[in-house]
UniProtKB/TrEMBL annotation:
InterPro entries: HIR1-like (IPR031120), HIRA-like_C (IPR011494), WD40/YVTN_repeat-like_dom_sf (IPR015943), WD40_repeat_dom_sf (IPR036322), WD40_rpt (IPR001680). Residues 433-450 have a biased composition (Pro residues). It is found in: Nucleus. It comes from the Eukaryota. Residues 426-479 are annotated as: Disordered. This is Protein HIRA. Keywords: Chromatin regulator, Nucleus, Repeat, Repressor, Transcription, Transcription regulation, WD repeat. It comes from Rotaria sordida. WD repeats lie at residues 167-208. Required for replication-independent chromatin assembly and for the periodic repression of histone gene transcription during the cell cycle.
Length: 833
């Protein structure tokens, strides 16, 4: 894989790109956006981007100035470029090529270019507002679809360019379109929180999918979705899983989301499939690229879903559009990407690097067998063309066609303002055109290297390589250091390395017992050995190899690897007898880590934590007679910076609530807020103020204090006090810390500490020199009075640690007692008394 980011395609404060498309032959790439603050479309020679030996003068083929071009798409079967310009679809035709032109003035739309593209049609009937996306019907260009911010989809017939029908059904801006490979279905995604699938035979809506898209599309300019080349599914742009942005996968004919591609930190704007099926280890798989506003590109394989690689910090802004191309001659696969910052990039995969693409004939046979339709994938003939050269005299991959003798005699003259005046000729339309003869193809140029003068070098994070095994194996990722097969990840990005299978696992339990595994015939035996007597206390047998073992005084957690089913299972055993308390719990993804911690208040209770390679966490809370799952597949990847690790995961049990806590090697302690379904930092080593830096009379007691003292004991008190008392913002630092502690007490449902920290905050504000202390005190007292004199809703009760009016009344009285000792707060005291 090679990454090219051409710096000579200018970008800056006056430049932006909204769309990119590579034509089916891989000769041209069209870029739509602003150049020198002028709306235009620039068509470049793709080979000049991928090969640095091309001369500068031969890079730009044509420039077309037009208003607000938001999308460009080349036709499949003819040299036609469709452009979304305001509420019109403009159709430009390639009318002539000028191979001898080398002196280009790219800053102007006038002057000579190697190619001439003329406006032949303007599809203005249908939309009344700006068009955001357009799509040709695959393979035969029978229809051209466009969608707009007027909430409608227009279908035009080709080549008649007449409006066939206007599809109405969306109630919001329609931001993306995609035809299935057979042209029988059209998918659309809108800001109304729905994805609809339309039939091209009846023009009726056949599917409406709502669940993962509701209320999540307003923040994106485009929602460019795409169908897989086998037509079995389509992948959407921005969707949400809880609060995390994902790309949703919808199976053909289904009304719900089948799976999700997760891992991006911001909204997904574009999804693009390579429109050829790949053969990898005898399996048919599809290649998908996903671009996001987080400036990250992720590449995936399907069937099963497997992440290939992630490229971070690709551009200064997000990713808006992408386009694939497969060169049948040399097997190179190219992916073009563009960004609103005006930059574009290209990724090149060498032949067989991703697998073997099906040939055109094999794709046609696949569609015939799969969908019972006869589809011919045409090889387009380049008309009005001449061999393109790179400026060094070497011909490019254009097919050469002859021009009629009558056209050779046609004359033209150039006006003073740059316009061309061409004398018309009468052409005999009954004379058959000569058969075009292709020019001999040259060997492919050496793969280009990324430009060294790039302003920002993207960081590439490689994923497990695609296995090339003569014996096809389903869903297998092979490691270079182990021949053991591991289950494939499902709908996520690999962030943590998977656990490796070991021949013999040994675990010690408090230096009293030892757990040992061994293989006997086709079975795996777990033995518990007494360290003092060296005698086997009990044995248990499993039919699958043991991947991980963790234990406490009372419980043993075991994960086995089902090699035939490509999945893992969780078993929980009683430590004293080896009895299976819970068994055969199938894990949803590939395991990266297994943790178990004993409850400090109840030794007959434990917390089992499973971390998957995708950065998701699942937690089980177990006793001998019960088992609950307080956390299911919650993302923790954002809690761990590079080179950080997890120290421990446990459940903090206190009076009325249980909180799952996570400690990282960076000195952070997080608690999971079950109400908000988010992690909250309960302690970190960079707190400017801690319990240790406070006077002894100003310390709390409760779960928050216990956590702080247990896991923050290594903090140097002198450093924290020095930082606190020497800072010119000392009062603001203390105020922020006390407010944070109030919030943390609420997360832990600790009423005693909530009472303590709130009264400490009032005491601090009353004696501080902050200018806005009166406003803060009034806000606190208003909040307490509101709970005293009104009936809070159930949701408010659940969010607050104090449950009754009497508790709030006592807290309000305590705050007023504190304020009575301060003369400048006498007005507040009188008001609330």
């Amino acid at each position: 894989m090679k990454l090219i980011k051409p710096e000579w395609i200018e970008h800056g404060p006056k430049e932006s790109l909204s769309s990119l498309h590579i034509n089916p032959e891989g000769i041209r790439v069209a870029l739509a956006g602003k150049y020198n603050a002028v709306d235009c479309i620039r068509i470049f020679r793709l080979a000049s981007i991928l090969d640095e030996t091309y001369q500068t003068q031969s890079r730009l083929l044509c420039r077309i100035d037009t208003q607000c071009p938001l999308c460009v798409r080349f036709a499949y079967t003819s040299d036609v470029l469709a452009v979304a310009s305001r509420q019109n679809v403009l159709l430009y035709h390639l009318t002539s090529t000028n191979p001898n032109v080398t002196n280009l003035q790219s800053s102007s739309s006038f002057g000579d270019f190697p190619e001439t593209w003329r406006l032949r049609s303007s599809l203005s009937s249908g939309h009344v507002a700006d068009i955001l996306d357009i799509a040709w019907c695959p393979l035969n260009d029978r229809y051209l679809a466009s969608c707009s911010i007027d909430n409608h989809i227009c279908i035009y017939s080709w080549p008649s360019t007449t409006l066939t029908i206007t599809l109405r059904g969306h109630t919001g801006l329609v931001k993306g379109l995609a035809w299935d490979p057979t042209g029988l279905l059209l998918a659309s995604q809108s800001s109304d929180g729905t994805v609809k699938v339309w039939s091209s035979t009846t023009w009726q809506c056949e599917q409406t999918i709502k669940e993962p898209f509701d209320g999540c599309a307003e923040s994106t300019s485009f929602l460019r979705l795409d169908w897989s080349p086998d037509g079995t599914m389509f992948t959407t742009a921005h969707a949400k899983n809880n609060t995390f942005p994902v790309s949703a996968c919808v199976i053909r004919g289904a009304s719900t989301v089948d799976a999700e591609f997760v891992g991006h930190r911001r909204e997904v704007t574009c999804a693009r499939f390579l429109q050829r099926i790949l053969l990898i280890n005898g399996r048919r798989r599809c290649l998908l690229a996903i671009g996001s506003k987080d400036r990250t590109l992720s590449l995936w394989l399907t069937s099963p879903r497997q992440p290939m690689c992630i490229i971070n910090d690709f551009f200064a802004s997000g990713i808006l559009d992408m386009s694939w191309h497969l060169n049948d001659n040399d097997g190179l696969i190219t992916l073009g990407i563009c960004s609103p910052d005006g930059a574009c990039a290209f990724i090149i995969f060498n032949k067989d690097e991703l697998g073997t693409p099906l040939t055109r004939h094999e794709m046609e046979k696949f569609y015939s067998d799969m969908y019972k339709v006869n589809i011919s994938i045409p090889t387009k003939t380049i008309t009005n063309g001449a061999p393109m050269t790179n400026g060094n005299g070497h011909s490019h991959h254009l097919q050469q066609s002859t021009v009629k003798a009558t056209l050779a005699n046609q004359t033209e003259r150039r006006l003073g303002d740059g316009r061309r005046c061409i004398k018309p000729l009468c052409i005999d339309t009954h004379t058959p055109a000569p058969t075009p003869t292709p020019s001999p193809a040259l060997p492919p140029p050496p793969p280009p290297a990324p430009t060294s003068n790039s302003s920002s070098t993207p960081s590439i994070r490689h994923m497990p390589t695609i296995p090339i095994d003569p014996k096809p194996t389903k869903g297998v990722i092979r490691s270079s250091t182990s021949s053991i097969t591991l289950p494939s990840s499902i709908s996520s990005t690999t962030l943590f390395p998977p656990l490796k299978l070991q021949s013999n696992l040994i675990r010690k339990i408090n230096n009293e017992y030892e757990l040992r595994t061994e293989k006997s015939d086709q079975f795996y035996i777990l033995s518990c050995i007494n360290e003092k007597t060296k005698l086997v206390q009990w044995k248990n047998i499993f039919q699958s190899p043991l991947l991980a073992i963790q234990a406490t005084k009372n419980f043993i957690a075991i994960v086995t690897l089902q090699e035939t089913q490509h999945c893992s299972e969780l078993f929980i055993l009683q430590q004293q007898s080896g009895l299976r308390l819970y068994s055969n719990i199938v894990l949803t993804q590939t395991l990266a880590s297994l943790y178990i911690s004993e409850n400090t208040n109840n030794i007959h209770r434990a917390t089992i934590s499973l971390i998957y390679i995708t950065g998701l966490l699942t937690v089980f809370d177990i006793t001998r007679n019960s088992m609950t799952c307080p956390i299911i597949d919650v993302n923790i990847a954002h809690l761990l910076p590079p080179h950080a690790s997890i120290v421990d995961i446990f459940t903090l049990n206190h009076i009325n609530s249980d909180t799952v806590c996570l400690i990282t090697s960076t000195g952070h302690l997080y608690g999971f807020d079950n109400m908000l379904k988010h992690w909250t930092c309960l302690f970190h080593k960079h707190d400017f103020v801690s319990d240790f830096a406070l006077p002894s009379e100003l310390t709390s007691s409760g779960p928050l204090s216990t956590l702080t003292k247990s896991y923050g004991a290594t903090i140097n008190d002198d450093i924290y006090q020095k930082t606190l008392y020497s800072s010119p913002n000392r009062d603001l630092l203390v105020s922020a810390y006390l407010e944070t502690q109030i919030h943390r007490s609420r997360i832990l449902h600790s009423s005693r500490e909530y009472y303590f920290w709130l009264t400490s905050f009032v005491r601090f504000l009353a004696s501080s020199s902050l200018d806005d202390k009166s406003l803060k005190l009034k806000s606190i007292l208003d909040h307490l009075a509101e709970h005293v004199h009104s009936t809070p809703t159930n949701s408010n009760i659940n969010l607050m640690p104090l449950k009754t009016k009497d508790e709030y009344q006592n807290l309000l009285n305590e705050c007023l007692i504190i304020l009575r000792n301060h003369d400048d707060a006498s007005t507040l005291v009188q008001h609330y008394e």
